[in-house]
Design brief:
Blueprint (H helix, E strand, L loop, with lengths): L11 H10 L14 H56 L6 H18 L1 H14 L5 H14 L11 E6 L6 E14 L2 E13 L3 E8 L10 H9 L14 H8 L5 H4 L1
Antiparallel strand pairs: 1-2, 2-3, 3-4
Helix pairs in contact: 2-3, 3-4
């Protein structure tokens, strides 16, 4: 009858080989000690992997805004080009970009026409009809407010200045835009208040605060820079912000300020 073998027994040759490799024959789960060459190889692989990952992420960070810019620009060109491209296709002109150039010329001519007395009258009549529409008038008013803020004419409905006010608590500040000024008549004297629009959802939704003119910080930022800060969520915020003096305000806006306020 064959002799039963003990499953836990280790052959002599295998035990000797494990002793030479540094393992305990009685503990088969014990791992062998790591050699210096293996540790060096693992460290080199880790450093190389970390370096490749870092450079790859750097490339993504650099190329992402470039790709978005090209994508938006290409989409805008195709979108604007699509207004007049079908007209040129009917005439037999299949030139890419011709509709885009025509659209730019058309926008320029509209600006010239609206700047005239006749164009302003036609525009006023069309705006009067739009403001009588139930739902469209709200969209038009919000869009006009945004376009007026960056208008080079700086008319009465445009944002006047970028403002920083203390809100909502002491020690906290909020970005906003001065839209108008109002004189509050009180028994102890008149008080000048500024209407400050503080956006709460990008640029078209926000709160209006009446703040004393002396409590408003007017930074050295243009309206376009203020809009960029709001739309970007503060990512384009400059590292240093300095308030402008009343004399600089006069030079920038041509605002008439009493001599008592300049002193």
């Amino acid at each position: 009858m064959a002799e039963e073998k003990d499953p836990t027994s280790v052959p002599l040759s295998q035990g000797a080989r494990e002793e030479e490799e540094g393992r305990d024959p009685e503990d088969p789960l014990k791992s062998p000690p790591t050699s210096p060459d293996s540790s060096t190889r693992r460290a080199c692989c880790f450093v190389l992997q970390s370096w490749v990952s870092k450079k790859f992420m750097t490339g993504c960070v650099v190329l992402f805004p470039v790709a978005v810019t090209f994508f938006v620009t290409w989409w805008f060109i195709q979108f604007v080009d699509g207004f007049f491209s079908p007209l040129y296709a009917q005439l037999g002109f299949d030139i890419f970009g011709l509709g885009f150039v025509t659209s730019l010329v058309f926008v320029f001519l509209v600006g010239v026409f609206v700047s005239s007395w006749l164009g302003a009258t036609v525009f006023w009549i069309g705006e009067w009809f739009i403001k009588r529409m139930p739902f469209v008038r709200h969209i038009y008013s919000a869009s006009k407010q945004i376009s007026s803020a960056i208008s080079p004419d700086q008319n009465n409905t445009a944002f006047k200045e970028v403002a920083i006010i203390r809100h909502p608590r002491v020690g906290e500040y909020a970005f906003g835009f001065i839209t108008s000024t109002v004189l509050l008549q009180r028994d102890d004297g008149d008080e000048e208040l500024c209407s400050v629009f503080v956006p709460t959802n990008h640029l078209y939704i926000g709160d209006v605060f009446l703040v004393e003119s002396k409590d408003i910080i007017r930074p050295n930022l243009s309206i376009r820079e203020g809009i960029e800060i709001i739309v970007s969520g503060g990512m384009t915020m400059p590292q240093k912000i300095t308030p402008i003096s009343p004399i600089e305000r006069v030079a920038r806006q041509g605002e008439r300020i009493p001599l008592s306020r300049l002193v």
